[in-house]
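idk why but the lab printer keeps eating my pages so im just putting this in chat instead. protein + NDP:
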Amino acid sequence: MQILKPVYDAVISRNPNEPEFHQAVQEVLESLEPVAARHPEWVQAGIFSRIVEPERQVIFRVTWIDDKGQVQVNRGFRVQFNSAIGPYKGGLRLHPSVNLSVIKFLGFEQVFKNSLTGLPIGGGKGGSDFNPRGKSDGEIMRFCQSFMTELWRHIGPDTDVPAGDIGTGAREIGYMFGQYKRLSNTHTGVLTGKGLTWGGSLVRTEATGYGLCYFMEEALKAKGLSFNGSVVSISGSGNVAIFAYDKATELGAKVVTMSDSDGYIHDPDGIDIDLVKEIKLVRRGRIREYLDKHPGATFGDNCFAIWQVPCDIALPCATQNEIDAASAKTLVANGCKAVGEGANMPSTPEAINVFLANKLIYGPAKAANAGGVATSALEMSQNSQRFGWSFDEVDSKLKTIMVSIYQAASQAAAAYGDPDNLMLGANIAGFEKVATAMYQQGVAY
Ligand code: NDP
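predcted complex ->
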């Protein structure tokens, strides 16, 4: 980094103790160095310095009462990162690891991802350090209501439209929407991932996992490969992982692993997804319970070791930094040909270097997992029209969007002299649209 080094240095000194945010910014700024060289007017207009600073950050107290009658205190966040091309849009993460750094890295990534979808949505992210694990329905509801009691004044259908993420699924969106509606006295499309009878879109639940496979199938096709006949390793067993399983299998692959935060299962015969759905979605249990019905499968309690299972295609769909350099080298040594990121920032920078150096097909998160937010934007369109599209209509739009994201990333990579580097291409293509909008909208005094 040369031209953009001062921008990166300022991010480090201005945002100490935010390692995840630094990591995300570094990756993007390194990719954007040739863009800065081609566009001195963007450097002059401070676009690079402005894009790494969120437009607004809200941090708030969330108090709620647990089932024992005790008061609990959590911290809530909403980082409204960039609204140059549309209202802020991005999920709400409920996980004990949530802090400002995590929300800022996710919000920053979201800006470029949302731009890549080609739809008019800006970037934001939010959440809380609340841990949903082991909580009763009543506790989840009271937390969600309290969270929304503050958040509602900062969001709106034309301002900021949150969605789900880790720990925030259909149940939580329902409780949050109910509270928003009560407080605002409006029934609007202020959240996406809503129930199908009250404004939700068909395919939204499946969209991130399906979209990941549509993107990767296109990338594989360009290299004469396919999911068909491939062995696939998936991490996670949540929303993204489960529907990535469904689509990869439909495309002819055999998925042999899944995981949760306690460890991973390996079933060489192919994972029994109905059982995983029953354990994780219905019973909200632990993935190791899989072995009760499939004693031939194995369980390992080291999440990183999932990448030691040989596979043709790896789809990390759990969380950030779940593939380090050692795991990446193991994947390469075992003949893995492609990595598609369902989770956000699942590969460390060192792991990405291993993938690129070994010419793997590497589908970076901001491109490969954009199907969720793209379908959320389709949900917003349907809400505005007060109309709903069929499953096939939404699915076909999703597929078209994922193919066009692949093409945009691939073409930008080629235009900047590194044709197979989809990370470079995704960062540049996502950035250029936002930068153009910011430039045209001028500097606010
Ligand atoms: P879910 O909460 O539905 O599932 C998360 C899964 O990852 C669970 O299996 C969870 O296990 C596991 N997990 C969470 N933290 C860890 C950890 N520290 N180590 C190992 N496993 C872990 O979340 P989603 O499926 O929605 O999200 C998964 C990833 O995909 C995230 O990075 C998210 O940001 C990203 N993403 C999600 C989108 C969406 O539409 N939902 C859109 C784009 C990206 P456990 O059950 O033990 O908690």
